[in-house]
Amino acid sequence: MLVAPSLLAADFGNLERELRWFNESGADMLHLDVMDGVFVPNISFGFPVLKHVARLCKKPLDVHLMIVEPQKFIREVAELGARYMNIHYEAVTHHHRVLQQIREAGMKPAVTLCPSTPVDVLRDIICDVDMVLLMSVNPGFGGQKFIPQTLRKVERLRRLISEANSQALIEIDGGVNMETGRQLAEVGADVLVAGSYVFGAEDPAGRIEALKALS
Ligand code: DX5
Ligand code: ZN
């Protein structure tokens, strides 16, 4: 299992210290949640902060944009050196164009679905994305409870991916812990995002290892 801890649950007063242990951990990437107070009812951090995070982080960045019109910020995200640029399906009209622009900017395009958006909308773009992020909580806040219907959704997405012969990874975000992580591994998730379960722990690196061991 690949694991992408979410910085949203980190101690923002000590980001340098947090990233020091993070760089030494077994985490596969760092998940960064950008919120604009419009697409979601919360505001997190923006590019002035992310520039410093990108400088301090030695692992690949997975940038999850919970913002309207994410296509306006392709250059800024590319300049961070991000590996994945994750845009919400619900925030974009011309998905195909935006996904191509993300790839042209040197990043891997990824598309995110809110809990109420069915996976079928991805049928005609599934070969244009390197990853699909299924939200297993309503986006905007860390520390929420996992929505169990996500498990069936992962199964449907797994089918859609294999029917289309797509290489897209399945990433899950929200309410991930050891119990939900085990269930997600069983239905075929590839990447687990975990905020409070990792950063809130006494031994965060140990929790990352435990999640990574799921298969
Ligand atoms: C929520 C964010 C998540 C959040 C997950 O909108 O997209 O990445 O950090 O937090 P936990 O793991 O605490 O549910
Ligand atoms: Zn996220």
The CATH topology corresponds to TIM Barrel
- Sequence stretches where pLDDT stays below 50 over 5 or more residues: none
- The structural class is alpha/beta
What's the helical proportion of residues?
25-40%
Please indicate the count of domains: 1
Number of strands: 8
What would the principal axes of the Cα set say about the shape?
globular
Main beta-sheet annotation: 8 strands, parallel
Over all CA atoms, what is the radius of gyration? 16 Å
CATH class: Alpha Beta
Small ligands present = D-xylitol-5-phosphate, zinc ion
Please state the average pLDDT score. 98
Percent in strands: 15-25%
CATH superfamily: Aldolase class I
Provide an overview of this structure.
- The structure is a single chain.
- The protein is an alpha/beta fold and 215 residues long.
- It has a single domain (2-212), classed as TIM Barrel.
- The chain contains 8 helices and 8 strands.
- The chain has helices at 15-24, 47-56, 74-79, 95-104, 150-163, 178-187, 196-199, 204-212, and strands at residues 2-5, 30-35, 61-66, 84-88, 108-113, 131-135, 169-173, 191-194.
- Strands 1-8-7-6-5-4-3-2 form an 8-stranded parallel beta sheet.
- It is globular, with a radius of gyration of 16 Å.
- The termini are close together.
- The relative contact order is 0.17.
- It binds D-xylitol-5-phosphate (DX5) and zinc ion.
Key attributes of the depicted protein:
single chain, 215 residues, alpha/beta, TIM Barrel, eight-stranded parallel sheet, 8 helices, 34% helix, binds D-xylitol-5-phosphate, binds zinc ion
